[in-house]
């Protein structure tokens, strides 16, 4: 099997591997350690407005609050829906079966959609930490309230929209 196929399936299965401890989201303990940067360089933002703004730790970069919210919404929705419109063409090619750099976007999307399975977790179960970014590129660690596993994702701003553009399993240098 291809490494990218296995990696694309790892996070959804890992997130459903453990049961919930049935605590409301607001009372669960955060699982990440505090950043090592000085307090003036690191901030932690938490609101209860929506799943897209729940406990995202920003550790570096020039991301505005709007960028942070857009990144959070994009990655959460992509993980739950697998929507091709939330990913760059290059990333779709890297996670689609038997695709390469010459594969048309539509074909890569069709291939990705054929292997994507709707996960048993929801956007509320996804935890984002260590969000950092500048110059239209961001990285964020994605974990779960259900399992102690994280994956580093990359997002790129394309024409004003944040799109998933990589993960630590399929993207060199991430």
What average pLDDT do the residues reach?
Answer: 76
Give the number of domains.
1
Name the helicity range.
25-40%
Count every helix, treating DSSP H or I runs of 4 or more residues as helices.
Answer: 4
Low-confidence stretches: 1-54
Beta-strand segment tally: 6
| Main β-sheet description | 6 strands, mixed
Can you list the strand order of the major beta sheet? Answer: 1-2-3-4-5-6
User: CA-to-CA gap between the ends?
Assistant: 22 Å
Order of helices and strands: HEEHHHEEEE
> Which fold does the CATH topology refer to?
Nuclear Transport Factor 2, Chain: A
CATH class: Alpha Beta
Shape: globular
CA-atom Rg in angstroms: 16 Å
Please tell me the CATH architecture by its name.
Roll
What does this 3D model show about the protein?
The protein is an alpha+beta fold. It has one domain: Nuclear Transport Factor 2, Chain: A (Roll). The chain has 4 helices and 6 strands. It has a 6-stranded mixed β-sheet with strand order 1-2-3-4-5-6. Helix 3 packs across helix 4. The longest helix has 17 residues. The protein is globular. The relative contact order is 0.22. The N terminus is likely disordered.
List keywords for this structure.
4 helices, 6-stranded mixed β-sheet, signal, Nuclear transport factor 2 family protein, globular, alpha+beta, Nuclear Transport Factor 2, Chain: A, 174 residues
């Amino acid at each position: 099997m291809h490494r990218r196929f296995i990696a694309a399936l790892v996070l959804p299965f890992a997130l459903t591997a453990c049961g919930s401890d049935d605590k409301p989201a607001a009372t669960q303990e955060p699982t990440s350690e505090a950043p090592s940067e000085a307090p003036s360089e690191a901030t932690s933002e938490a609101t209860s407005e929506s799943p897209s703004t729940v406990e995202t730790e920003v550790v570096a970069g020039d991301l505005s609050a709007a960028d942070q919210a857009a990144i959070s919404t994009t990655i959460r929705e992509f993980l739950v829906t697998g929507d091709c419109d939330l990913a760059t063409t290059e990333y779709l090619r890297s996670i689609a079966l038997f695709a390469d750099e010459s594969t048309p976007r539509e074909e890569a999307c069709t291939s990705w959609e054929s292997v994507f399975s709707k996960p048993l977790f929801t956007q509320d179960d996804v935890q984002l930490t260590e969000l950092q970014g500048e110059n239209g590129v961001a990285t964020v660690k994605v974990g779960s309230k259900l399992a102690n596993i994280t994956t580093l994702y990359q997002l790129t701003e394309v024409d004003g929209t944040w799109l998933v553009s990589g993960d630590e399993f399929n993207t060199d240098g991430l």
